[in-house]
Amino acid sequence: MAPGFLVALEGLDGSGKSTAARSVATRLRSEGWAVTLTREPGGTEVGAAIRSLIFANAETMSATTELLLMCADRAEHVRSVIGPALENGDIVITDRFFASTIAYQGYGGRLDLETVDGAIRIATGGLTPDLTILFDVDLDTAHSRRAVTGQEVNALDTRREDFRVRVRDGYQALASGSPDWVTIDAGAPPESVADSAYTAILTALELRRSSR
Asked: What is the CATH number of the domain that holds 125?
């Protein structure tokens, strides 16, 4: 087992996960933790090119093509960023990991979940997060936040509402009953959302320390 600690932040665009990621990383670093903050897709040079390709063609690209490109991004991400940081003992906070692929291409794109899982296993080499935090928010709130902030929008989140409903339902199904998932009410104010994520990470770190 790698000595570091992998945290994946998941949810729709507009859920506040990216803002919380930056806040939590800053807070942990100020307390002396070594933290690597990264994202998917686009956490590497190769990944940035893949990200641009996916989002530029999201309206016409098939879910299968998306799946394979997302997994190509992830394979490079694990190899060149996440793996080395974990071996270095860092807390790695990634804004999206493989649950996004299950939620978006699996549930949203209606791909066979076993097929999705197989592609993910190839890309990750079996690496799984120590903790996944779901930033759960209703679709209207997510949409209004994107409009107000003018933030970069995940092009997959601009698709029809029924697609985004399936994505949110997929996330909730993944989180339900899983001991390695924590669900946060992302409809709360940003400071509260970041505090909840910070507390979840520290709690998970303490649980792992006490189990050794």
From this structure: 3.40.50.300
